Amino acid sequence: MNNDFIEQLRVELDVWDNSPTECDGHSRVISTLLFKKDIKHTIWCGFFQWIGHGQVSPHYWIELPECDCIIDYRARMWCANMDNPQLINIEVPHGIFNPKDWNQIQYTKIQQQLPSDFGVPLNGWLFDILTMRI
User: Fold this and answer.
1) Cα gap 55→9, rounded to integer Å
2) Does residue 14 contact residue 107 with C-beta atoms inside 8 Å?
3) Selection from 117, 121, 106, 88 nearest residue 46 by Cα
4) What angle do CA 127, 57, 28 make, to 5 degrees?
């Protein structure tokens, strides 16, 4: 996966950022989209830590093993209740990113979720429910 591919994927996935879901539901939505594009990925459940500010547990995110990237659209949402929320946009990533570029965060993997074990791809009606605005 090259930078152009990642940028195009970012454009396609950013549209779904406004779904009214938390990290588990949003990971299912994104995983369904990746599954339909035949993009290999793994869903993880574990801990997210914003070093010096707090920890989110449990937390779900997606890894793209072919490019060492993480997809996480919900870390900032959880960090909004931690110390120094004015630093979130500077220190906490959002969307598709390489975790090596962010030294203020740490992901700890506890349990791997294969898409099929996580209920992905979602049925059309469930995808619609998870992505509709209320």
Assistant:
1) 28
2) no
3) 106
4) 15
Radius of gyration of the chain (CA): 14
CA distance 17 to 33: 13
**90 confidence band (pLDDT: 50, 70, 90):** very high
Q: From residue 85, how far is each of 19, 23, 96, 104, 111 by CA, in Å?
A: 22, 19, 21, 13, 28
> Position of tokens 């049925």?
123
- Secondary element (H or E) of residue 106: strand 105-113
Model confidence, pTM: 0.91
Distances (CA, A) of 101 to 42, 68, 69, 126: 20, 11, 10, 34
CA distances to 21, 64, 72, 95, 117 from 98, rounded to whole Å, are 23, 10, 11, 10, 25
Give the separation between CA 95 and CA 76, rounded to whole angstroms.
10
| pLDDT one-digit tens code per residue, 4-21 | 999 999 999 999 998 999
Q: Are 63 and 30 in contact (CB under 8 A)?
A: no
Q: Is the peptide bond before 20 cis (omega within 30 degrees of 0)?
A: no
